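Appendix B. Raw example, untouched.
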Amino acid sequence: SNHWLRAWLGLKMNPLSILPLIMKSHHPRATEATTKYFLAQAAAATMILFATTTNAWKTGQGAMTHTAPIASSFITFAVMKKLGLAPTHLWYPKLLQGTTLHTALLISTWKKIAPLALLYMAHPHLNPHLLLQQGLLSTLIGGWAGFNQTQTRKFMAFSFIAHMGWAIIALNLSPNLTTLTMITYIIMTTTLFTSLATTTTKTISDMGTAWPISPAMLTTTMLTLMSLGGLPPLTGFMPKLLILKDLTTTNLIALGMMTLAMSLPSLFFYIRLA
């Protein structure tokens, strides 16, 4: 939709379908995760509605092509909160920890398409400097916060935050590059979650005992982890290389160097896991 009110309605309905799946295990942790997910999504939707009202007051219109600067900032933060990106990311790792691996896969992939599509459509009318700052911050937090994680679902949550940081940075350069980054991430994440579910791996220490269960799956897991880290010549290296190339072409060399430096911790713990 090219109207903020219709976009708000779509984003408001998007989380409702996943709530029964999160709480189907009837575990206290699942109930807590459901509550956190609902509150985070409701807060983000409320912020978008407030921004839509502010924009209509400032410009007299609700179309995306006529977005006031203050409404633009609110909408950017709201979409980042819906995606679970820094600095509004604290609810996301705890959510994945309270769900099953299959539900965590749906939340990490399918449920991110709607807010990302809105960001894709609206980015020409949003503040590019704010997007770059949040992308850089997400890359930093996603990389460093994954160091001390022992649970695979929390680890995958911070992996998503780091990868989305790259995607948000690429959005200012080339939307098609963001699409490529997300398609690559979704394929690798689906493969990794499937492997973890097959070998019933819930903690990092479980990986050490997974070889007798399924050697082929553990090998796939190792290759996917290194690909997620961006280790050449694996698939995950290609989007990052193209993003760095575009940053260099547009004279954003300093930003490219900072993004690359902040991704080194991610590569380290991916290799450590593999």
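End of appendix B.
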